[in-house]
Design brief:
The complex is a heterodimer. By secondary structure, chain A is of the alpha+beta class. Chain A has 15 helices and 16 strands. Chain A has three domains: 289 residues, no CATH class; 112 residues, no CATH class; 58 residues, Arc Repressor Mutant, subunit A (Orthogonal Bundle), CATH 1.10.10.410. Chain B is built from 15 helices and eleven strands. Classes of the chains: A alpha+beta, B alpha/beta.
Chain lengths: 478, 487
């Protein structure tokens, strides 16, 4: 049987406010355990929550960015359950009336087509603390620094049909929240994480299959693997005559598998009810307009602009707008270089990107600043060096923190464009390889590349590739 | 002039400022009475002699420096539901019997700033759940008018302490009548302000949408003095209202001519003691004599108050009390085997029977499948009750009726039947559901036991209630009567 996968995601994005959603404690990551937990976070008797206006502003910003309805009136509700990292015994969240509802984002699928993924709702809530097990033999510690950190939970419609699509959507949301400056997107620190609802059904069926919810996927790679694991598991189960149980599962990154956490029967009854300590959150159009005025250029708009302004492909524009910093970087290089948009795009998304990737550095922290990269590419444009040599110079710039020109001069990397020097090199190569020359002339034209390689080798890669091609052709056919 | 211990806050304030007595002397006097009668009344959970005398010494400095306000140097007590920095704050529960609060409630902070001297923390029903003060982990409080009877609850310790003049005034909280009912049963004046008038920050929550801090005092004038110091917006409590508090003291003497009083028809039911009804009728004539106009008013949904309350209040309590889990503070069971055992034993051992009953009821009414039938329905009825009150206040300025159906009952008389106990609050719960200010003032005695008259006003009408109560008290002396044992 052919199966169709149905995926919906719940993304938790920590809002980048300085203080917590209902208390004045700081939200910085990595502080000593419980050093950022005050009486409100510790749920001391008698304390009360006070809503952080900045968290509301950020959530509204998100709502506007996905063209959602921003509710004039939304309600905070208590989600009741017992756990040591939940000091009040309930999490303050939004249930029946969320702040944001009915939005959408567009993702580009592998075949280049666009799919609109609906966002059912995005609501404000507080994060829980953390349980600590390391270094506490036989004991569990509780760190409440994270307790009360503001989150928006972004719930998608079940509109995704593969793990790849789900990750594309996840990346899109990730890009968006960072553009908006409302979340640092740091997945390792848990600032951005997601739960995946996955089900499968026979292709063409109109009813959804039974879904499982896999929790706490904190990297794109894990999300993709976990979803794929879950799809395979469910299909195998169904094909062997079994049934998928509605349950919550946990992804074990070490083993690359999901395993059952609790079944539907064991699921908590959260006993949601409106939190009587907080008044309904009421906002007016003036407020919404004021927030709208602070929206930056969003990824989709930026990509369209890059395509029209720099004649970039949709793919390049998409890659370059994955973060606002990357797009900014790109635009500065193009400006400094005075054009050559495609060359810049190629370098930034190619050699520079792999360098950054290797060094695990964000574009904003790149050791090679845009102006320095523009000066390097200027040497490619004016034929001082080839694109291939430029890659080596880029590497050296990264390692040594020096200017392109200094490296080119010091290492004598200037490209050989002088016909005399090139002709000499070609002549030597042809003399040294009479057999190949004969074969070529007998019709084995594939050997052209061989001769290019030999000349490049002889000139330590400095031969101007375009000129070399022309001259070599002349000589071979002479 | 009466003995010093029997004076009102206003009178003591005058003596202090005249220099005829110091705060340290007054504090010693009331501390001595508190200690003397503690074994009989059990009105206090904590008596803070040392810190009280330190506060009194500082108050005396302010009095000498001429920077004293009307409450500076006056000894008072706080219900043990208010967090007091560095002092035990037990809420009448084993769960918090070892809890030393690291901070002051807003009410405590404001009264401290006003210079009031706190001599201790008064006994109460556990987590303010009860109408007889028999649900305290620290043992029942006894009614100063008859030691075999209950003082009412949950602010029973505060009511008994004021009735026996162990302090001239005390704070209380009122979720379904917990200030007014004990005030009535002990023969003192009690006011529950409008919901949102007094900050709930630092007041340990029972039912957040109903809880409101207030005052138990000898008379309306003292209640006005204390309330003026306690009330007002607090940014730490999102439900506190950002409205200025009018000068409550300034309007006490306003004549009552033309004031329209609505006699609450539903309160004069078959459950009402005839003696109390008689007291109310007599009290009414005192007000009519001053020009007040009386008419009967009906609030048809009011009889639904008790069932509505016993859905809403337990629902909120079941969630509010979840934080008492043995993890961070308060009681923790011995040698828990695992997390579940820690929760189960801590909460089984730390909470008393009535608290557990309400947590279970509350958990039930919020459960999936029952929420609509109970909680949502109760909220709809609550809205109907509020609407009844609103309609009534189009016709009259204030509603009047008895505070309780009976006078103080014997200890143990109702402990085996919670529903009978709950019906004790039948007249008081409506004001909480609608968030309205309400008072109870002494209006006579039935067989030697005090009766209370209740006034309920529109939102933020504390000044009018205090005005009516004060004019009534100018013509009567029920509030000045003192049980002979304590003279």
């Amino acid at each position: 049987m052919e199966w169709e996968t149905v995926i919906g995601l719940e993304v938790h994005a920590q809002l980048a406010t300085r203080s917590k959603i209902f208390s004045g404690s700081a939200t910085a990551y990595g502080a000593a355990p419980n050093s950022q937990a005050n009486l409100v976070d510790l749920a001391y008797p008698g304390v009360l929550p006070v809503l952080n206006g900045e968290a509301v502003r950020m959530a509204v910003k998100f709502g506007l960015a996905i063209n959602a309805r921003v509710a004039r009136r939304s309600i905070f509700a208590r989600k009741n359950y017992f756990y040591p990292d939940l000091p009040k015994g309930y999490q303050i969240s939004q249930y029946e009336l969320p702040l944001v509802a009915g939005g959408a984002v567009d993702i580009v699928l592998e075949d280049g087509s666009t799919r609109r993924i609906g966002v059912t709702r995005a609501h404000l809530e507080e994060d829980a603390g953390k349980s600590l097990h390391e270094g506490l033999a036989g004991l569990t510690g509780v760190d409440l620094n994270r307790a009360g950190t503001p989150l928006i939970e972004i719930v998608s419609e079940p509109h995704m049909r593969s793990a790849k699509e789900a990750v594309t959507y996840l990346k899109k949301i990730h890009t968006l929240v960072r553009y908006l400056g409302i979340c640092d997107g740091n997945m390792q620190e848990g600032s951005f994480r997601c739960d995946a609802n996955v089900s499968v059904r026979p292709r063409g069926a109109d009813k959804f299959g039974t879904r499982t919810e896999t929790k706490n996927l904190n990297s794109f790679r894990f999300a993709e693997r976990a979803i794929n694991y879950e799809i395979a598991r469910q299909i195998e189960l169904l094909e062997s005559g079994g049934k998928v149980l509605q349950e919550t599962r946990l992804y074990d990154a070490d083993r690359g598998e999901t395993r059952s956490m609790r079944s539907k029967e064991e699921a908590n009854d959260y006993r949601y009810f409106p939190d009587p300590d907080l008044l309904p959150l009421e906002i007016d159009q003036m407020y919404i307009d004021a927030v709208a005025a602070t929206l930056p250029e969003l990824p989709d708009q930026k990509a369209l602009r890059l395509m029209s302004e720099y004649a970039l492909s949709g793919y390049d524009a998409g890659v370059l707008t994955a973060s606002a910093e990357l797009a900014d970087y790109y635009e500065v290089v193009v400006r400094d270089l005075g054009g050559h948009a495609k060359l810049v795009a190629h370098t930034v998304t190619g050699d520079l990107a792999s360098l950054l990737n290797r060094e695990a550095v964000e574009i904003g922290d790149s050791r090679i600043r845009p102006a320095a990269l523009a000066r390097l590419l200027a040497r490619v444009v004016d034929n001082t060096i080839s694109g291939k040599i430029a890659k080596d110079v880029l590497e050296a710039m990264w390692q040594e923190g020096r200017e392109a020109d200094a490296i080119i001069e010091e290492r004598g990397l200037r490209q050989i464009s002088d016909d005399g020097a090139l002709e000499q090199a070609i002549a030597r190569v042809l003399v040294a390889h009479p057999g190949q020359l004969a074969d070529y002339r007998a019709g084995k034209e594939k050997l052209f590349g061989f001769f290019v390689g030999q000349v490049m080798k002889a000139t330590a890669g400095k031969a101007n590739p375009a000129r070399l091609n022309e001259l070599l052709k002349q000589k071979l056919h002479a | 002039m009466s003995e010093l211990y029997a004076r009102t806050v206003a009178e003591l304030s005058q003596e202090l400022r005249a220099g005829s007595v110091s705060s340290v002397e007054l504090t010693r006097l009331f501390l001595a009475r508190t200690q003397q009668y503690q074994s009989e009344l059990n009105a206090f959970i904590t008596i803070s002699a040392d810190s009280a005398l330190e506060q009194a010494a500082r108050a005396d400095e302010r009095l000498r420096a001429g920077t004293a306000g009307p409450l500076t140097g006056v000894p008072i007590a706080h219900k043990d539901i208010f967090c007091t920095r560095g002092e035990k704050t037990s809420c009448g529960s084993r769960m918090l019997a070892n809890f030393i609060s690291p901070y002051d409630a807003t009410v405590v902070e404001r009264l401290r700033a006003a210079g009031a001297v706190m001599i201790g923390k008064t006994n109460m029903d556990e987590f303010a759940m009860g109408s007889s003060n028999e649900n305290s982990f620290f043992g029942p409080v006894r009614n100063p008018w008859d030691l075999t009877r209950v003082p009412g609850g949950s602010s029973g310790g505060s009511a008994a302490a004021v009735a026996a003049r162990l302090v001239p005034a005390a704070t209380g909280t009122d979720t379904g009548g917990s200030i007014r009912q004990p005030a009535a049963l002990c023969g003192v004046t009690g006011i529950k302000p409008t919901y949102g008038r007094v900050s709930r920050y630092g007041m340990i929550a029972f039912a957040s949408s109903l809880d409101q801090g207030g005052v138990l005092a000898i008379d309306a004038e003292d209640a006005a003095l204390l309330l003026a110091a306690m009330a007002g917006f607090d940014q730490r409590d999102s439900t506190s209202v950002e409205l200025p508090v009018p000068p409550l003291h300034a309007t006490l003497e306003q004549p009552l001519k033309g004031v329209k009083i609505g006699l609450l028809k539903e309160f004069f039911d078959e459950g009402l003691d005839r003696g109390i009804e008689q007291c109310i009728q007599t009290g009414l004539s005192v007000l009519q004599a001053q020009g007040a106009v009386v008419r009967e008013v009906s609030l048809p949904n009011l009889p639904l108050s008790v069932p509505t309350y016993y859905v809403v209040a337990p629902a909120e309590c079941s969630s509010n009390l979840a934080r008492f889990d043995g993890v961070r503070y308060g009681y923790r069971c011995e040698q828990p085997l695992d997390l579940l055992d820690l929760y189960q034993r801590t909460r089984s051992e730390g909470f008393g029977a009535e608290v557990k009953r309400r947590i279970m009821v509350g958990t039930y009414v919020l459960s999936a499948g029952y929420y609509d039938a109970y909680y949502l329905r109760a909220q709809r009825v609550r809205a109907l009750i509020s609407a009844d009150f609103e309609r009534a206040f189009h016709e009259v300025d204030v509603l009047l009726g008895p505070t309780t159906p009976t006078t103080a009952f014997e200890l143990g008389a109702k402990t085996s039947d919670p529903v009978t106990m709950y019906l004790n609050d039948i007249y008081t719960i409506g004001a909480n559901l609608a968030g309205l200010p309400a008072m109870s003032i002494p209006c006579g005695f039935v067989d030697g036991l005090p009766a209370g008259m209740q006034l309920i006003g529109p939102h933020f009408s504390e000044a009018s209630l205090l005005n009516i109560a004060h004019r009534y008290q100018r013509e009567t002396d029920w509030h000045l009567r003192l049980p002979s044992r304590f003279t």
